[in-house]
Design brief:
The chain has about 270 residues and is an alpha+beta fold. It is built from six helices and twelve strands. The chain folds into two domains: about 210 residues, 2-Layer Sandwich (BirA Bifunctional Protein, domain 2), CATH 3.30.930.10; about 40 residues. Bound molecules: biotin.
Length: about 270
């Protein structure tokens, strides 16, 4: 065996990412403002960035969450990464199917560890029981009526033990299972499951994805309390529309809401 063959074998052994393209180009950063910002800047440089590229950070000092919130994560303890996909095959009107596919990919990767307490909270939070394990910030860059680049930022609490008071209802895999987990192993599982769902999406298996998403949904078909504007009411989630709007049965009326319009109140 010559040196070249030997180094290829070592490289293959070190590559725990088993998929075709998601995670095959992995860049790990010690510190960055936000992996979503980093990936966006990378795309505006002249060098092509392969689809499936993952940027992972040990520390984010300006992590961004949904609705202009900040995303805090203890350095080195959790997964904070962004993935590049190019779903130009997906109609812009159906972009919520990408959210569904990514949420399901993350869900499937964590399910063997966490089991039935795991849920997807609409639209794309990852919950265990009534606590938030992680979330995602998907930024689609449109060009000529197509999704040219999708920057998929994912934050998951893995080994963090204590959360600051302001972190609300956060939890972590460590809090649930009392064990530390290897971040790269979980990342590689997430990448393979996301790839599988993404390829299903590309193959137009949308009804399977929509059905699976509903079956994993937090509080689906359960009576619970919501707040919309100034109104607090009891209702039941009965569906999520094709375009991602949440459907709640409120008395004998069916209402639809977007993310900014509805709040889940604690049980
Ligand atoms: C949320 O639930 O509010 C979404 C959180 C998304 C956080 C991730 S961490 C990696 C990526 N980079 C960011 O700045 N945000 C996302």
């Amino acid at each position: 065996m010559n040196v070249f063959e030997f180094s290829i074998i070592i490289a293959l052994q070190n590559n725990i990412f088993s998929g075709l393209f998601v995670g095959q180009n992995l860049l790990t950063l010690k510190e960055v403002d936000s992996t979503n910002n980093f990936l966006k800047n990378l795309l505006s440089n002249s060098k092509p960035v392969p689809e499936g590229t993952v940027i992972m950070a040990e520390t984010q000092f300006a992590g961004r969450g949904q609705q202009n919130n900040q995303w805090h994560s203890e350095p080195g303890k959790n997964l904070t990464f962004s993935l590049l996909l190019r779903p130009s095959f997906l109609a812009v009107a159906n972009q919520f199917d990408l959210t569904r596919a990514i949420s399901l990919g993350v869900f499937e990767a964590l399910y063997p560890l966490l089991g039935d307490g795991l849920k997807i909270k609409w639209p794309n939070d990852i919950y265990y029981g009534d606590k938030k394990l992680g979330g995602m910030l998907i930024e689609n860059i449109l060009q000529a009526g197509q999704i040219k680049n999708a920057i998929i930022g994912i934050g998951l609490n893995i080994n963090q033990e204590v959360f600051p008071d302001g972190a609300g209802n956060a939890t972590s895999v460590k809090q649930i299972l009392q064990k530390d987990y290897d971040l790269r192993t979980i990342l590689s599982d997430i990448c393979s499951h996301i790839e599988a769902y993404y390829l299903n999406l590309k193959a137009n298996k949308v009804s399977v994805i929509r059905k699976a998403y509903l079956s994993r949904l937090y509080s689906f078909n359960e009576n619970r309390i919501f707040k919309a504007g100034n109104e607090v009411f009891t209702g039941t989630i009965t569906n999520v529309k094709e375009n991602g709007l949440l459907v709640i049965q409120k008395g004998n009326r069916e209402m639809t809401y977007n993310l900014k319009e509805i709040e889940f109140l604690n049980k």
